[in-house]
């Protein structure tokens, strides 16, 4: 038996017990969404002691769904919003461009989420997708609402359904929020990187940090594919508030070297949020790991089936040696 201290609560666990089970035993809420090391929803910090990370270690963090108990340890679980299952309505639908829709859902109950988190969204059983909660491109917000970006490239079925029914006002079900790579109240320099088709969570993090952490140093690096008119409102809002946007070819073979050039002074005192495909995250990860920066990855996956049925071949998501 081992003693595991989780956010101050002490539990006893058998050796080889999944860390997620020990967390649940403590009464803490930590939702495992995918079960195969892709959603990043169960990442937590090992404060002291050791656990078997089973290939999921990033600095002092591990995925509780994969890590197991091997001895006494102290664990810190990020405090996040409680999981909610709610029904809402489409209250606004804005066709931003030929391939982007800004969708607003309204609910009768309060919605609580953190920038960088996502929801399961069910459009009356017709389309089921994972969508990152975000803010309107004009930075406007409303009480009891969720904003989602619907892009033709990433959610073609949903995009087609909504464009065919531009007056869609049906009921929409959500479950969430999921994800542990959300904006925290830290002092480190904030580095935000968005790959192709991955602006939504980074825009949410950037806006929230500007509003809630105005004195925090910020670096925003975006793939050059995002430099389009459809996102210009968001870019203008950030520019007017002193956030300098850097566009770079992050899809090229030398993307890692580009990031190193843009961040020559990257250190362990930096906090980086990187959003993109699994391959994109894997390609850049060693830059942050080698510098010992605190690193939060936000994988971009939309289909429930893709998340649940993805082969348990996690090499692309393993931390760099």
By DSSP (H or I, 4+ residues per run), the number of helices equals 7
Cα(first) to Cα(last) distance is 31 Å
The helix/strand series, from N terminus to C terminus, equals EEHEEEEEEEEHEEHEHEHEHEH
Number of strands: 16
**Which residue ranges are poorly predicted, with pLDDT under 50 across at least 5 consecutive positions?**
306-321
- The coarse silhouette is globular
Counting helices, strands and paired strands, the structural category is: alpha/beta
The helix content is: 10-25%
Strand content: 25-35%
Physical arrangement of strands within the biggest beta sheet: 9-8-11-6-7-10
Reported for the largest beta sheet, the result is: 6 strands, antiparallel
What is the rounded Rg? 19 Å
The overall average pLDDT, rounded, is: 87
Characterise this structure.
With 321 residues, the chain is α/β, with parallel strands linked by helices. The chain is 21% helix and 34% strand. It has seven helices and 16 strands. The protein has helices spanning 19-25, 156-164, 199-212, 232-240, 255-262, 278-290, 304-309; strands at 2-6, 9-13, 43-52, 61-63, 68-76, 84-97, 100-106, 118-123, 127-132, 145-151, 171-178, 189-194, 218-223, 245-248, 270-276, 294-299. The strands form three sheets. It has a six-stranded antiparallel beta sheet with strand order 9-8-11-6-7-10, with helices on one face. Strands 2-1-5-3-4 form a five-stranded mixed beta sheet, with helices on one face. Strands 14-13-12-15-16 form a five-stranded parallel beta sheet, with helices on both faces. It is globular and about 60 Å long. The protein starts with a strand and ends in a 12-residue tail after the last helix. The relative contact order is 0.14. Mean pLDDT is 87; it is low at 306-321.
């Amino acid at each position: 038996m081992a003693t595991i201290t989780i956010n101050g609560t002490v539990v006893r666990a058998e050796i080889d017990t999944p860390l997620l089970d020990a967390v649940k035993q403590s009464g803490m809420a930590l939702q495992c969404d995918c079960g195969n090391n892709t959603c990043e929803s169960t990442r937590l910090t090992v404060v002291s002691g050791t656990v078997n990370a089973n290939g999921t270690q990033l600095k002092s963090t591990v995925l509780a769904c994969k890590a197991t108990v091997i001895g006494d340890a102290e664990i810190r679980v990020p405090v996040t919003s409680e999981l909610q299952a709610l029904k809402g309505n489409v209250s606004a639908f804005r066709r931003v461009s030929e391939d982007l829709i800004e969708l607003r859902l309204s609910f009768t109950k309060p919605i609580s989420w953190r920038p960088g988190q996502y929801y399961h969204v069910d459009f009356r059983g017709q389309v089921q997708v994972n969508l990152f909660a975000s803010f309107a491109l004009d930075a406007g917000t409303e009480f009891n609402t969720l904003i989602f970006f619907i892009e033709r490239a990433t959610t073609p079925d949903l995009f087609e359904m909504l464009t065919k029914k531009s007056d869609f006002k049906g009921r929409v079900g959500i479950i969430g929020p999921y994800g542990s790579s959300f904006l925290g109240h830290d002092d480190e320099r904030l580095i935000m990187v968005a790959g192709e088709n991955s602006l939504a969570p980074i825009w949410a993090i950037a806006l929230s940090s500007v509003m809630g952490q105005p004195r925090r140093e910020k670096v925003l690096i975006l793939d050059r594919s995002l430099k389009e008119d459809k996102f210009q409102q968001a870019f203008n809002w950030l520019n007017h508030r002193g956030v300098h946007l850097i566009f770079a070819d992050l899809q090229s073979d030398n993307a890692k070297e580009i990031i190193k050039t843009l961040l020559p002074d990257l250190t362990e005192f930096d906090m980086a949020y990187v959003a993109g495909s699994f391959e994109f995250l894997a390609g850049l990860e060693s830059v942050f790991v080698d510098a010992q920066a605190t690193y939060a990855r936000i994988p971009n996956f939309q289909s429930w089936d893709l998340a649940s049925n993805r082969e348990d071949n996690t090499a692309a998501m393993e931390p760099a040696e």
